[in-house]
Design a protein that fits this description.
The complex is a heterodimer of chains A (255) and B (248). With 255 residues, chain A is α/β, with parallel strands linked by helices. Chain A is built from ten helices and ten strands. Chain A has one domain: Rossmann fold (3-Layer(aba) Sandwich). In chain A, helix 6 runs parallel beside helix 7. The chains are: A alpha/beta (255), B mainly alpha (248). The interface between A and B is medium-sized, with 26 and 14 residues.
Chain lengths: 255, 248
């Protein structure tokens, strides 16, 4: 589990996070949602230490993250995998080399063992026959899968995904969502996804934190979203008339 | 303005401490060093060849102009050209040109990695990114640039010899006599020390500007420009300091 306690962060006098407290649960797909500029990415990067908060604590189970030394932080980060919005793949490396990179850097595995692990991860994200291709030679959806394969190659305990569906068509986005959710269950990971894709919210949102203007606006699960009277949820999640209609139909079928 | 320079100096110093911390996997660094030697060393051969030819030729023509109609013995052209090239022109001009070629490339490469979140991805993996990205470049440059500068010195002197004898009316015997007169190996050491210092400046200053680049293509362009400008200024400052310390 990862706990954020009273996180504050300002940039040039503008307070972006205003005391965020939330528990991200183990073996669940935890979602951070909100409008653009709500502070989602800042919160996600604060949780992994890419942005240092002005105030507050982040706990990885029983470890106070911001009390760790640089060496201890690097040790903990070997238990962390992250999928970036732009995938952050190394252009000069093949797909296989990209996925193998963390193993090359941090393990003493033999080449054959590393190769087996890489192939397992690529199989897991349903990528075949791309080992020797370069990131520029494959599609955006495939690059996302490579990003996921690299994020899970070290068998992390914590997985962070920054806008995993950005730039993908709805079908591919759904496949990526299902992939992240099933990997979370299989590996018993704490997964935190930052998204504003409402399909993701309704498909995989087991534990949701809704941010508005740097504050916690609402917390709950996808099931609770359907039944909440919260006006902010109403305006944010079911923003279009089409989605409002769908919601009413769904609620009708519950009755 | 001055406070900002102190801020950069402090951040650069702290960042250098990380650059020189213990590597995670020496073998991965070794491979990267070889790649850098190929890129910096072999990749710069053509430009070093071109500038060396002109450094020697221009120096020979200007010296022949200065010596014309004076009582200075004609063989002094070889001696003066050798000293000018070894002590200053080869290390300084070559380094200034390399600051443009290598410096902008390093700033763009590392800056691009920062903007595409690749550096963040490496940090998340637990990697010491300043060391992994910059140390192999420093080692590669400190190995390659002095060799390039020695090559530049040799080519410039040869080019000066050809120009002085073929175009400026000096005899080969006079030139060679000057070239071999009053030789002191100390000046070669000055050149080599300059080469080491200048290569370190080129790589670290350029990498620093790339590493801390902000978002946007304009910022990336600015990082490339700053890398060249600050490397060049620091090369000239270091040139003065080395001259003062070793020859003053």
């Amino acid at each position: 589990m990862i706990k954020a306690i009273n996180i504050h962060k300002s940039f040039d006098g503008t307070e972006v996070l205003k005391g965020i407290t939330f528990d991200f649960r183990k073996s669940k797909t935890n979602l951070i949602i909100g409008r653009s500029g709500a502070g989602k990415t800042v919160l996600l990067k604060t949780l992994v230490g890419l942005i240092t908060p002005d105030e507050g604590e982040v706990w990885y189970d029983d470890i106070d993250f911001y009390k760790l030394s640089l060496k201890e932080t690097r040790k903990l980060r070997k238990k962390v995998g992250m999928l970036f919005q732009g995938n952050a793949l190394f252009d000069s490396m093949t797909i296989e080399e990209n996925v193998r990179f963390p193993l090359d850097m941090f393990t003493d595995m033999s080449f054959e063992e590393k190769q087996e692990q890489v192939n397992n991860c690529l199989d897991r994200v349903e990528l075949e026959g791309v080992n020797d291709k370069y990131p520029a030679e494959i599609s955006g959806g495939m690059q996302k899968r490579v990003g996921i394969a690299r994020a899970i190659v070290m068998n992390p305990e914590y997985l962070f995904c920054d806008e995993p569906n950005s730039g993908l068509d709805p079908k591919t986005a759904l496949i990526i969502d299902e992939l992240i959710q099933s990997i979370t269950k299989e590996n018993n990971m704490t997964t935190i996804i930052n998204t504003h894709d409402m399909n993701s919210v309704m498909e995989i949102g087991e534990n949701i934190l809704l941010l508005d203007n740097g504050e916690v606006a609402w917390t709950g699960s996808r099931e609770e979203i359907m039944h909440t009277d919260n006006k902010y949820i109403e305006n944010f999640i079911f923003a279009s008339p089409f989605l409002k209609k769908l919601k009413n139909q769904a609620l009708g079928s519950y009755k | 303005m001055i406070l900002r320079q102190f801020y950069h100096l402090g951040r650069y110093s702290l960042w250098l401490l990380k650059v020189f911390s213990k590597p995670e996997k020496t073998r991965m660094y070794y491979n990267e060093v070889l790649r850098q030697i190929e890129e910096i060393g072999f990749g710069s051969l053509k430009i070093v060849f071109i500038i060396s030819v002109f450094i020697g030729a221009v120096t020979a023509i200007q010296l022949s102009y200065q010596f014309g109609g004076t009582l200075i013995p004609s063989y002094y052209i070889g001696y003066t050209l050798r000293e000018m090239i070894i002590v200053d022109l080869a290390p300084t001009i070559t380094s200034l040109v390399l600051a443009g070629k290598i410096g902008s490339s390093i700033a763009a490469e590392i800056g691009g990695m920062r903007q595409k979140e690749i550096i963040d991805a490496m940090e998340i993996m637990g990697l010491n990114t300043p060391a992994f990205l910059v140390l192999p470049k420093i080692v590669g440059a400190v190995f390659s640039v002095p060799l390039l500068i020695i090559l530049a010195a040799g080519l410039s002197i040869f080019s000066g010899f050809v120009t002085a004898t073929a175009l400026a009316g000096f005899t080969p015997a006079d030139f060679v006599k000057g070239l071999t007169s009053f030789y002191d190996s100390y000046t070669v050491w000055v050149m080599i020390i300059k080469a080491f210092v200048f290569s370190f400046i080129i790589v670290t200053v350029s990498a620093y500007h790339g590493y801390f680049v902000k978002r946007g293509s304009i910022e990336l362009g600015k990082a490339g420009t700053d890398a060249i400008v600050y490397s060049s200024i620091l090369i000239l400052v270091a040139d003065y300091v080395i001259a003062q310390v070793m020859m003053g």
